User: Fold Acetyl-coenzyme A synthetase from Variovorax ginsengisoli.
Amino acid sequence: MRTNDAKTRLIPAADIKEAHVPSTSAYNELVAQAEADHDGYWSRLAREFLSWRTPFTQGLDDSQAPFFKWFEDGTLNVSYNCLDRHVESGLGDKTALIFEADDGQVTRINYRALLERTCRLANALKARGVQKGDRVVIYMSMSIEGVVAMQACARIGATHSVVFGGFSAQSLRDRIHDAAAVMVITADEQVRGGKQLPLKAIVDEAIALGGCESVTNVLVYQRSGAAIGWNAARDRWLHEEMQDQPATCEPEWVGAEHPLFVLYTSGSTGKPKGVQHASGGYLLHAALTSQWTFDLKPDDVFWCTADIGWVTGHTYITYGPLALGATEVVFEGVPTYPDAGRFWKMIQDHRVSIFYTAPTAIRSLIKAAESNETVHPRRYDLSSLRILGSVGEPINPAAWEWYHQHVGGGRCPIVDTFWQTETGGHMITPLPGATPLVPGSCTLPFPGIAAAIVDETGNDVPNGQGGILVVKKPWPSMIRTIWGDPERFKSSYFPAELKGFYLAGDGAIRDADTGYFTITGRIDDVLNVSGHRMGTMEIESALVSCTALVAEAAVVGRPDDTTGEAICAFVVLKGARPSGDEARKIATELRNWVAKEIGPIAKPKDIRFGDNLPKTRSGKIMRRLLRSVAKGETVTQDISTLENPAVLEQLAQSN
Ligand code: PRX
Assistant:
């Protein structure tokens, strides 16, 4: 159990001029307001932060819990809130996006131009028959067009489903199929780290796998100009589709509960879940957290390094900052190209004032900086920075300290933001002007978020004692359902024994003195590798689908210095257990197989072969034991039920 290290290092809240939430007492006041009148608190903010076409008359509707609704009779348009209203209020010339391509080329686009481009694409989508409520899959690289594609869907009330460009044809096909998408928007290729990687070819492959008959059009953004396959009945160039379209497009005014997007994420069992978000409640929290957590102000230059294929890119690139009329950096490339100083150089060049990234990136850049002085952040002018953020996985105190000292010059608060695809936006996070910081802790719940730690029966556990992280009250940006599977939504997030609380799937502990939260990791079979969420079952299914080779497979995570967790697979082959070169060859083959089935991010780092897997008498794989083996620990569990204890020795050997 974690000891109380809060005493050793509590960093006072930053003294920020005119911070949105300026002090601990201001934070406490907001928390008290929300506690006294949850509905009134959120309704007030929804009126303040969003422009409604028709005002709502009711905040929360819990009559069909856990299918909660917020602001249901209000109507609005998300893209109107992100674009038009800023142009109408005289901010048309303000830079919205500073796009930096992989090769360093910079393109700026102001709010007026971004609105026009969004309208042209929105009109083009309509011209191809896309209607309100239709699903559009976006399989794009980081680009202005990627943001425009999402905004254009929102404008016409189409529900987008962005699929990360690193997913394989099979994964893409599964998502297109599950969402029954009518259109795919993609690029010819993506360019990352100096390499050109296919996108359109993967779309072709996905559709050829079958089950994507709903797709009638594929729009292709020309990024690299590479030669690509073309199906004249289905494929269209994005620029040709847009060129003759009018630069205005009346927004589709939708009800607040209208599904803005479905984003697939991994669960502990079965196939990825399509997390469905609403329009009004989601946008409210995207805008609100962008403002309070980052203290985002009109003169800031905001940079979230996430990809639009993940929820962080949705909320803190496409929606939150734009809803506030902010200026933000969008980056096509990778942090290590042309060298590991890329992030620092971009902060310097664009005078970035708020920087939001993942612990994995920080850890790998620490390694790089320690072995090569020329890419150390101290070689760059980072004086524009005022706030740093972290997201996606726990940030270990050593990485926190380095980030604080070397990137933030010891003066920038770090907001360690805990949240999930399902939560839509930040749940537990410091507010920079209000919350004293403790390295490694995401500190306190965002005002209005009723986060708590309970035992298996839903009862509160005292501070200092670990338990299950839950949220006791509904909040506006929460997941509405799993696309096409309401039963799975209920059983995954609102299990009967937890008294109707939202189950996050993470363990947590509150510090005995400060009440600060520390996330202790997933309590289900979900892994977090480089901040990417992956289900062990998904990887196991991918491995056993290699029927020519694999008889059985079990996947667990083990701690990794750089990626947080690493994937370790235990495999029983159909043939004899291989060793030496043969084992290495088969391990490589299996890694490539998983990359083809899911995507390169799911490749196991470690593959180990055994004659069988350790199981209980009832035939359940002993995962806890495998976790110990993966870590290289001596096994302390009872192994008396193991049929073949020698298998543990086999499985301890890496290939
Ligand atoms: O385990 C938690 C971890 O990431 C999970 C959510 O993953 P995903 O839905 O992909 O969203 C990632 C971006 C929000 C959580 O269940 N996680 C996320 N942020 C943190 C974290 N763990 C510790 N500290 C965080 N700040």
